[in-house]
Design goal:
Length: 84
Amino acid sequence: MADLSDEDLLVLELEDTWQDRFPTKAEAIRQTLGWSTTKYHIRLNRLLDDTAAIYAKPVTVGRLRRLREARAAERGTTSAHSAS
């Protein structure tokens, strides 16, 4: 199992704390990481399938995986991530 980078940990932490410090998630992403929201969500989705992320923040990752799966079900699509 590979360790998470500092940026990976920051992404996961941001998911738990952005509401307390920023008016929008997009602003939190820009100010905290200096990334576009697209880059952020690509990285976040990769993390949701990373075993190291699950060990580091199990509640956060579990919650986000359930949300991702629910959104895929609403769209009537099967997430490639659901099979894992």
